[in-house]
Specification:
The protein has one domain: Dihydrofolate Reductase, subunit A, CATH 3.40.430.10. It has about 180 residues and is an alpha/beta fold. An eight-stranded mixed β-sheet has the order 5-4-3-6-1-7-10-9. A two-stranded antiparallel sheet has the order 2-8. The protein is built from four helices and ten strands; from the N terminus they run ββαβαββαβαββββ. It starts with 14 loop residues before the first strand and ends in a 5-residue tail after the last strand. The longest helix is centred in the N-terminal third of the chain and has 11 residues. The structure holds NADP nicotinamide-adenine-dinucleotide phosphate (NAP). NADP nicotinamide-adenine-dinucleotide phosphate binds next to strand 1, strand 2, strand 3, helix 2 and helix 4. The site of NADP nicotinamide-adenine-dinucleotide phosphate has 27 residues, from strand 1, strand 2, strand 3, helix 2 and helix 4.
Length: about 180
């Protein structure tokens, strides 16, 4: 049975996971898009999130080249009351998200910056792809990862090749148990 983070109260009883690809400065995007194309990272993202629920901000949804992600329940967060997005559930608050996830054992928050900021203090798990490069002119960032809050449980290094311009590492962190 998954041990959830006590700070999130009774809002959601399952695992709250985040998944992100960030550069050495925690940058995640530029002008509404990802920083670079890493096919193996997209594969990794698909493997981890498929058949689960994914929650994203409206701007991230609008950046998806083919709209809603297949084989996943897509939830888009927006403040726009009448917004509709093809094949997505629209939510205006985290409380609304939890109502749509009552029967789920795990929910993935997939960005962007605003959504990571909203959820990081409640999250149980972080799947971080660290891109070993510093992109100039990035304009969106993942929040600082406090080493006192997270335990590294998995690490897999990947070398650059003709399809991947930079080295990158798949990290998995879980939140340290609260002692209070
Ligand atoms: N590297 C990665 O792993 C990764 C992953 C995802 C995204 N990204 C990148 O991140 C960038 C987008 O990030 P972003 O921070 O600009 O946008 P975002 O988080 O994707 O979306 C922001 C929007 O979400 C809605 N929103 C935010 N907080 C909300 C709340 N509490 N309640 C209801 N709605 C809320 C608002 O929509 P309305 O304005 O409609 O009200 C807001 O404008 C893009 O460049 C994208 O490519 C990178």
């Amino acid at each position: 049975m998954h041990q959830t983070n006590s700070s999130k109260g009774n809002e959601f009883s399952g695992e709250i996971a985040m998944i992100v690809a960030a550069d050495e400065n925690n940058a995640i995007g530029k002008k509404g898009n990802l920083l670079c194309h890493l096919p193996n990272d997209l594969k990794h993202f698909k493997q981890i999130t498929e058949h689960h629920t994914v929650v994203m901000g409206r701007k991230t949804f609008e950046s998806l080249p083919k709209g809603a992600l297949p084989n996943r329940k897509n939830i888009v967060m927006t403040s726009q009351k009448d917004a509709k997005f093809n094949d997505c559930i629209v939510c205006h608050s985290l409380d609304e998200v939890w109502k749509h996830c009552e029967n789920e054992d795990k929910v993935f928050f997939i960005g962007g910056e605003q959504i990571y900021k909203l959820i990081i203090d409640k999250a149980d798990t972080l799947h971080l792809t660290r891109i070993h490069h510093a992109f100039p002119d990035a304009d969106t960032f993942f929040p600082a990862i406090d080493p006192n809050e997270w335990t590294l449980v998995e690490e897999k290094q990947q070398d650059a090749d003709d399809r991947h311009p930079f080295d990158y590492t798949f990290f998995t962190y879980i939140r340290k148990k609260q002692t209070k």
